[in-house]
Specification:
By secondary structure, the chain is of the alpha/beta class. It has twelve helices and eight strands. Bound molecules: phosphoenolpyruvate.
Length: 249
């Protein structure tokens, strides 16, 4: 069975709540499609007004992060129950910016992934290599390690519903997109790794996105690759161009 595409925007630390409402009202008609799941991952404070603004449309509102504990003395963090209480169904886990600036590790990613599943939230699990790692030829080994740790103690049934975002760090926010061949090669290696951990059925079901300077121009070729099931989009998700990315065909 063909996998349904999933195209997600990562707003990062952009858009005040009132700007978020304005942007959703602008994008709503542009991202309308029945062919893909469309997710806007927005800053925590934007989630409630974004949900309100997206009502009646095909836009799903997701979070950009979540903590792995249930509740308690974790000043500044957002719990999974806070997200599900307002209807959030997707959360980005382990974005490279969180790994770089907020000390996230493969281990905390794994804890967050397990917690997201416990609460019925679909994690969009990010992985990706640095430019040095690519130049040293260790990309596939590195990504396999990230995937193996992220999925520790995750069941096959849970893994089938997960989303993995392959985001080469050197391509994020740089305007430098991985070639179609580079993106497909790593996404295929991720699927093979999932097959090794679980089985063929899980590998066939899991959705793998490419992320890193995706644009309206690069999306059609990238998303046509056999192992690329959509994209995680940063900069272009804040512009009307996101409509073209969602309706890339
Ligand atoms: C991202 O933040 O996940 C991302 C891919 O950003 P950009 O599209 O701007 O490179």
């Amino acid at each position: 069975m063909a996998r349904r595409k999933i195209i997600a925007g990562n707003w990062k630390m952009n858009m005040t709540p009132s700007e978020a409402v304005e942007l959703i009202n602008t994008l709503k008609p542009l991202v309308a499609t029945e062919d893909a799941d469309v997710v806007f991952c927005v800053p925590a404070i934007d989630i409630i007004p974004a949900m309100e603004a997206a009502k009646g449309s095909n836009i799903n509102i997701g979070a950009e992060n979540m903590y792995f504990e249930e509740k308690g003395a974790y000043t500044g963090e957002i719990s999974p129950a806070m997200l599900t209480d307002v209807g959030v169904k997707y959360v980005i886990i382990g974005h490279s910016e969180r790994r770089e600036y907020f000390a996230e590790t493969d281990e905390t990613v794994n804890k967050k992934v397990l917690k997201a599943f416990e609460h019925g939230i679909t994690p969009i699990i990010c992985c990706g290599e640095s430019l040095t790692q690519r130049e040293q030829g260790v990309t596939i080994d590195w990504i396999r390690q990230q995937i193996k740790i992220a999925f520790l103690n995750v069941t096959a049934d849970q893994a089938k519903t997960a989303v993995i975002a392959y985001e080469p760090i050197w391509a994020i926010g740089t305007g430098k997109v991985a070639t179609t061949e580079q993106a497909q090669e790593v996404c295929a290696a991720i699927r093979a790794c999932i097959k090794e951990i679980y089985d063929e059925a899980t590998a066939e079901a899991i959705r793998i996105q490419y992320g890193g300077s995706v644009s309206a121009a690069s999306a059609p070729e990238l998303f046509a690759q056999p192992d690329i099931d959509g994209g995680l989009v940063g900069g272009a998700a804040l512009k009307p161009d996101f409509g073209k990315i969602v309706n890339y065909k």
